[in-house]
Amino acid sequence: MKAENYILGAGPAGLIAAYYFDDFKVIDKKPLGQLNLPFIPGPRLLQATENMKEFVKSICPDLELKEEIAVIGFHEDGNVTDTPSKNFKANYAMKTRGKNKSESSFMSEGMTEIKHIEIADYGEDSYKFLFESLLKIIKDRGQLIETSVENIDVFGRKMHLENGDVLEYWNLISTLNVNLLKKLCPNMKDMPHDLSTSPKCFYKAEYKDDISVMMSEKTHPSLWFDYVYSIGTDWTRQTFFRDYIVYESVNPIEGTHIQGNKILMKFENLPIQIKESLRFETIDGIKMLGRFAEWDHQVKANEVLDKVKSWIN
What we know:
The structure is a single chain. The model has no long low-confidence stretch (mean pLDDT 93). By secondary structure, this protein is of the alpha+beta class. The chain starts with a strand and ends with a helix. The chain folds into 2 domains: 1-47 and 123-195 and 277-313, FAD/NAD(P)-binding domain, CATH 3.50.50; 70-115 and 197-274, no CATH class. It is 25% helix and 31% strand. Strands 3, 4, 5, 6, 11, 12, 13, 14, 15 and 16 form a 10-stranded mixed β-sheet that branches.
């Protein structure tokens, strides 16, 4: 058996790594991760850094790239402003994670505006379009193994797959949630870290007012803010898409409407809110890449891309 190089997980982080390391195979039964959900669960932005612009252009060489500004709002005492009050961050940390201390990565790293890239006419769907296009490239290269891992022997450097294959690895990159990786590696060393999460709930809701009228009369909320954080409501963030709103909350929201907007779809009590960022680099010789692999709330597509590029250099 010849040892090869593998990436666990074909979400955005795994696909970025596979694009630059074409000698790695990617293992995932359901590629694209959260992008498979029937609606976008909040803001997904390609920040307009030089690395990201170069990357997007390499994936979509024939499409126009546009730089846009996402404006962030802060809801408190019934009003929305473009800057948070003095205690807003601490109150938001307590509401979402049960602690007074706010990490720098909470609430969009303190930014009130984010310069980001949109692809041609895809607008708010640019993020999903990019990674769907990237997945096609990875598939065309023959890098994707569409199955799941059942067991990893970190001492023997072998993986047992759901399809019955046993793979010996030389280099292994994991983009999986650390808690899941621990379950796959029964002989992994103990990690005396707090890997607890708090729940998140997502609600897709329709606008109570006619969209075409809101656009023509310039009252559509997305014309003012792209998304809004809140500390004084039962929701913690709302994201304004053209045709719908997504609300996030810590606890399930009762009823059929939020702010008068009818709930169309919901996903509740997902254990995905990291309480305390740790920043794992490697665990038992496995390189960690991505927010839940590194266990770092700050990590997004831009940070993943920068890290992969640093590995190349």
